[in-house]
Amino acid sequence: MTPCDTAFTCDFTWNGKRYTAQTGDTLALALWRNGIMALAATRKRHLPLGLSGSHVAGILVRVDGHPNVRADRVLVHSGLVAEAQNTWPSPRFDVLRLARAIPAATVYGGFEHSGLVKSGSPLFQPWERTLAFLAGVAEAPDASPARPDPPAETLEADVLVVGGGPAGVEAALDAAREGQSVVLITRGTAPAPGQFEGLAAPVTIRGGHEVFGFYRGGTLALAAPDDPRRPAILTRQNRVVLATGSSSIPPLVPGNHLPGVINARTALHLAEAGAIDDVAVVVGTGLEDKLARMLDSFGIRVAAVRPVASLSRIEGQDRVEAALFGRDRISCGLVIHAGPWIADDTLWYQLVADGELQLACHDEQAAAVPVQRVGNAALPAEPVHVPPGRIDSAHACPCMDVTVGEIRHALGEGHSDPEVIKRLTGCGMGPCQGFPCWHQMAAVIAHDTGTVVATRPSRRAPGRRITVAQAAGLLGLVKPL
Amino acid sequence: MAHTAPQRPLPRSASVIIVGGGIQGLAAAYNLAAEHRFGDVLVLDAGYWQGGASGRNGSLIRGAFGTPEWTGLFRYSAEQWRGLSKRIGHNVMFSQRGYTMVAEKASTAHTLREARKVHAELGIHSELLSHDDIARLLPAIDRGQVSGALHLPDSGIAPHHAAMKGLLAAAREQGVDIRYRTRVTAFERRDNRIAGVWVGDHLVRASTVLVAAGGHNPMMADLAGVTLPGHGTRLEIMALEPLRPVIRPGLAIIDSLCYLHQTPRGEIVGAAEAPESPHFTLRTDIPVMATTASVYLRLFPQLADVRILRHWAGLIHATPDYAPLLGEHPACPGLWFSAGWSYGFAGGPGAGRLMAGAIATGTIDPVMRPFAIDRFDRGMPLTDPTLVL
C-alpha cells in the first residue's frame, strides 16, 4: 500500500463519501476519528457492530474490491475505497436494516433451522438462494489477483516465542542470553529490533503474522492473513513459548454488541491516537480504577467506574448511549471493559486436545515438542458474570448473531452439551472460531444448569489466519503421512 | 459428563438396539418406528449428537454414480431426500441445486460420457454440459481447466445440522429412545446369536442389534467377535470464510479427487484428498489443506485471497471398494450392520429405510442386496470409476 501522500493527511472513501485520515491511521481508527463507529451488521438481525477489540465480525469491511478485510489492520492510503458489507442494494440505502424488526426468537438457530419454508415445497429453492445471499454477507473478490503466489518458507530455531508483548519479549531475551536461537512471532507490529542486539544468540522477528496451528511433529504454521503477498511459514523448534496474553471479555448484558463497547486495550490505543472525545463508563474486575486513571491522563472524561458485575444493561440504537447499573442510568458514548480477563487458549487446546473424541485417540504427535505458557497466557480464566434478570438479548457470539436467549432456548429443549449447542446455534462458528464466545456460552450453561462446564467445543484451525493462495504455497513443504 | 443432564436409567430390553446415533442409525430408527410400528427402539451413541461423520461431512447428496449398483442405492436415497421434509415433518433443508462432476483430463471426460450411458439405461436424469452450460452454471470456474462435465439436476445438498436436527426430532416423536454420551462396552451373544449389548455393567437385551457406528464400525465388529472388511480412517475437509453465492451446484472435481459446495451459510466447504496412509485420528494435518487450496487456486482463481475459516477431520470406515456394507452379519444372526460408508450422508435416508424394511420383514430389497457384507468372499466387489473421496 502507498501511505498517505502528504505529510499529515490523506483522503479515502467510505460508503461513497470522502473522508480524511491521518498518516499511519488504520482504517478503523480513521473512521473512528470521523465519528463512524458502526462498520458492520450482524448476520441475522442486522444489528450494528463496530470496533470492539473482542470480535472480528464488527471490523470486516470491503477494501479496494477485497472482501472481509480487517479495518483495524489495514493502513489508510490515499484513494482507498472502503465500504460496509452485508448491505443491499447499497451501503447508503440498505434495505436489510428492516431485519431489525424481526423478533429474535424467530431466527434462533439461524434462518436455516426454521420451518418457514420446507424443502420439497415449490418456494424452497428461491428461499434458500435468498438465505445464502444474506448469510454470505460479503460479495466475492472482484477478480483473481495478478501476482505470483508465494511458496511457503521454513524457519528454524531453538526456541519459538508466540507473542510480542512484554512476556514474549522477556522470554525471547532470556533464551537468547542463554545462547539459544529464537524466532519471535507477533500478529501486531514487531518489537524494536534494537533490544535484541548483542545477545549470545540471534532473535529473528516476524511481525504481522498469526500462528494458526500446531501440526504433527510439533510443527507450527503461521501466515499473514492481511497481506496475501507474504508466504505462509512452517517452523521447527525444540521448545515453544506461548506468550499470547489475555483479553478482556465483553460484559454479558443487553447491548453488549453495540459500537462503543470496547476493551481496555482498544480504548488505550484510541486514546493514545487522540481519537476519543466521548464520555466513557469504565467497568472491570479490579483493574477498572487503574484504567480510568490512565484514560484520564489522556484527557478522556470518565463518568463512572464500577465493577463489571454491577452493570445491567447498555442502551443505544446505532451506538452506545447509556450504561445502566440497576436503576442508575449514566449517559455515555463508550463502555470500556477491563475484565473479566481470559487467555485465548486456542493453540494450547489444539496441542493437548481437539475435542473429547480426540482425547480418546490422542497420539504421540502432541508431545513432540515441549510447550510453556508465560505471562497472562498462563493465568487461569476469570469467571464470566451472568447477571440476574432478563439478559436474553445479550450477545454471546455477535459474529454469528447468537444471543443468550438462543442458548437458553437450546437449554430449554434439553440440550446442555456445549458441542450440541454449538451445532444448534452456530455459536463460535464465525471468524474467531470460538474465542471469546464459548466462554460466554459456557458461563450461561453453567449458570442455568448449576453444573461445571468442563469442556468447550473442539478448536478448529486456522480461524481465517491464512488465505487459499498462502495455503497452496505449503504444498511443496509437506508430505502426506 | 458433569454438564450432561441426568438421564433416565437405561431400559432392560429393547425391540431393536441401534449402536450409533448418526444419520444411518437415526434414519433406521425413524423408519422402524414410523413405518414398521416397532416400539422400544433404543439408540445408543458413545459421543455427542453430530460428533461423528454425520456432523463432519461435505453435505453432498449425489443420486447417481458410474455403475448400476451404486446408482441404484443412491438414486433411491436421493428420492428419499427430496421428500424427507414432508415425510418426517421437519425441515431438513434439502436443496435440489444439482451436482456436477467435472473432468479435467480428456480421458475422464470419456468416463463421464460412459456414465451418462449408464444413467440413460437406468432412466436417470443427467446432462453432459456444453461450454456455455458450464459458463451459466459455474461462472466462477476457470473453463480452460475443464474438459467435460456431467450434471445431475435431481441431486443437491443438505446442511447436516438441519438434516440431523430434523431426523433426531422425528425419531423422538415416533417414540425412539435416543441416548448420546452412552458407550456400548460389550455385546451379549448366546448360542452364536446376538442377545443384547452392555453399557458398563448394565445389560440391555435385544434379539436384533444394528451397528451403525461410522468410523468405529471395525472396532464394534471386533467387540462383537465378528470381522468386517476394511478399516477406520480419517478424512479431512475445510470451510472458507462466508461469501455471497459464487458456486451453485455440488461439485466433484474427479481428477483432483476434490469435492465442494457452498453452504446456505455462504461458506465454501470441501476437500481434495492427499494420498496418505490410513490414520484413525480427528487431528488435521497440513497436506489436505494445502492440496485443497491448490485445487481451488487452479479452478477458482478468484478465491486466491479468501481466508480459510476452519479445517476438521471426520472418521469413516473404508472398505476395499469404498462401498457400504449393508445387512445381517453371516457369522452372527441378529447382528446387522450399516457400515463401510464413504457417501453415508447422501445414502442415509435411503439405506435407513431399506435397513428398517429388511429388519422388519426379513426380506432384503434388490437395491440393497449387492452391498451384502460377504460380497468380497463371493468375488463381487462394487468398484465405481466416478468416486471422489
UniProtKB/TrEMBL annotation, chain A:
InterPro entries found in the cross-reference section: 2Fe-2S-bd_N, BFD-like_2Fe2S-bd_dom_sf, FAD/NAD-bd_sf, Metab_Enz_Cyan_OpOx_G3PDH, SoxA_A3
> What molecular function terms (GO) are annotated for this protein?
oxidoreductase activity
SUPFAM superfamilies (UniProt xref)? FAD/NAD(P)-binding domain
A Pfam family in this protein? SO_alpha_A3
Which keywords does UniProt give here?
Answer: Oxidoreductase
Q: Which residues form the SoxA A3 domain?
A: 401-455
Tell me the protein's name.
Sarcosine oxidase, alpha subunit family protein
Task: Say which species the protein is native to.
Answer: Novosphingobium nitrogenifigens DSM 19370
| Origin organism lineage | Bacteria, Pseudomonadati, Pseudomonadota, Alphaproteobacteria, Sphingomonadales
Automatic annotation (TrEMBL), chain B:
Identify one Gene Ontology CC term for this UniProt entry. cytoplasm
An annotated Gene Ontology molecular function: oxidoreductase activity
Check the record and name the Gene3D superfamilies matching this protein: D-Amino Acid Oxidase, subunit A, domain 2, FAD/NAD(P)-binding domain
Question: Pfam families this protein is in?
Answer: DAO
SUPFAM superfamilies attached here? Answer: FAD-linked reductases, C-terminal domain, FAD/NAD(P)-binding domain
Instruction: Identify the keywords attached in UniProt to this record, alphabetized.
Output: Oxidoreductase
Q: Which residues form the FAD dependent oxidoreductase domain?
A: 16-356
**Top-level taxon:** Bacteria
- Name of the protein: Sarcosine oxidase subunit beta family protein
